[in-house]
Amino acid sequence: MSEALHYELKNSIAWIRMDDGKLNLLGSPLMRGLQELLGRAAAEASAAVLIGRPGAFSAGLNLKEVRELRGAQLVEFQKLFSTTVFRLFTFPKPLVAAVSGHAIAGGAIFAMACDRRLAARGAFKLGLNEVPIGVSFPHFILDMARSVYTPQYLERAVLHGELTDPDTAREWGLIHEVTAAEELEAAAARQAEELAKLPHEPYWRAKEYLRRKTFGREFSAVLAEFESFAFFQSSH
Fold first, then answer.
1. Is residue 35 situated within a structural domain?
2. Which domain holds residue 37?
């Protein structure tokens, strides 16, 4: 298990905390560990909260690790990221993101994959800057973005890669609620506890249907895309 991950079950809510002491960059150990904790939370909790450290939810993929990968290793890394996002988006219980700071690129995608998204107010940047840095979006993530962002801001968010402050991210649809940083955890707990009261089986049946509609295809077809899609391509 990655040392950057911490798990606590409290009042039937699973708290999954990302804290590497820095920017919570998404590397292989963290993503594998997160998948393990999502499985644990699905089995023993009524809802879950994914939270970062003060000032940083996640600044995206660990590009230092990415640059050292070649061939099959790079493909496996891309599959690991895609699978982790898919696991978040199809988590069978209510899932709340407590965006505690910067949420950029992969970090914003992790937040986007959650059912309810709260953010701390502050001088933080949130958004999808993949296109400006030369990274291609998997199609299923574009499907997710289309379902999350307000239509009038979708192209600015995805094509232009504009990063915004938390209040603007709420206006654009990425965030549902912005709160003072010191109140974020309590607000996330309230949201998770309210959602946890909903009957689990009807919740998952409805969520599964909506997720399929978001993708416009079966989950198996989405998973098959992970085998061949390349994020890191030449921009020329």
1. yes
2. 5-196
